[in-house]
């Protein structure tokens, strides 16, 4: 039976529309960093190269290579860590050109250095891209976090973040970093802006 993250990892990927305290375990990711407005083509290109690697892993058995411990699964959604340059933080106007980010796609536990090298080999042969040189494999543990489902435009996220900050203050928690995580459950190319579903997350301490 295919592993479905929507069913097996509901606490992580399908929160409710109200803040909740969760503990996020360490996970493996293909990652790439970038800077600038996410509406620009460079951001889309970075997403594309991540998905090419993610699907290379997913389809490895058809390429004649079966990783140890491999199982059928649904490719995980795109995630991103978002921050702002010092110049962007000092201004009064929110300037998307000053955003800095790390976008990533989670990988199943069986993905290791050997599997990663094989994925790069497959993609380099089928769809070479200079951006592959910027992709790296990493293990990240958010740990104790407050997260919430945001429904609507990305530009309306501050309203949801405000609710999360109220929850954090009311429960005597502290935000570890204003670098926040977003998990994109909807394809912005296919879903209306007011129906987009995005998981928003702050890492916190007690």
Automatic annotation (TrEMBL):
What InterPro entries does this protein map onto?
GyrI-like, GyrI-like_CCH_Lin2189-like, Reg_factor_effector_dom_sf
Q: Which residues form a coiled coil?
A: none
Ranges for domain GyrI-like small molecule binding come to 19-198
User: Which Pfam families does this one have?
Assistant: GyrI-like
| Superkingdom of this protein's organism | Bacteria
Q: What is this protein called?
A: GyrI-like small molecule binding domain-containing protein
């Amino acid at each position: 039976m295919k592993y479905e993250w929507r069913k097996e990892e509901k606490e992580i990927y399908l929160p409710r529309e109200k803040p909740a305290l969760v503990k996020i375990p360490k996970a493996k990711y293909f990652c790439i960093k970038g800077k600038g407005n996410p509406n620009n083509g460079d951001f889309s290109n970075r997403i594309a190269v991540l998905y090419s690697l993610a699907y290379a892993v997913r389809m490895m058995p058809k390429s004649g290579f079966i990783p140890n411990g491999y199982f059928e699964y649904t490719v995980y959604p795109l995630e991103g860590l978002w921050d702002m340059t010092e110049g962007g933080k000092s201004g009064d106007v929110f300037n998307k050109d000053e955003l800095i980010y790390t976008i990533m796609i989670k990988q199943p536990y069986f993905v290791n250095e050997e599997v990663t090298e094989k994925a790069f080999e497959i993609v380099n042969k089928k769809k070479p891209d200079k951006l592959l040189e910027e992709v790296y494999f990493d293990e990240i543990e958010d740990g104790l976090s407050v997260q919430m489902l945001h429904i609507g435009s990305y530009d309306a996220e501050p309203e949801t973040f405000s609710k999360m900050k109220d929850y954090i203050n009311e429960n005597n928690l502290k935000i570890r970093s204003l670098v926040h995580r977003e998990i994109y459950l909807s394809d912005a190319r296919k879903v209306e802006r007011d129906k987009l579903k995005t998981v928003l997350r702050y890492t916190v301490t007690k």
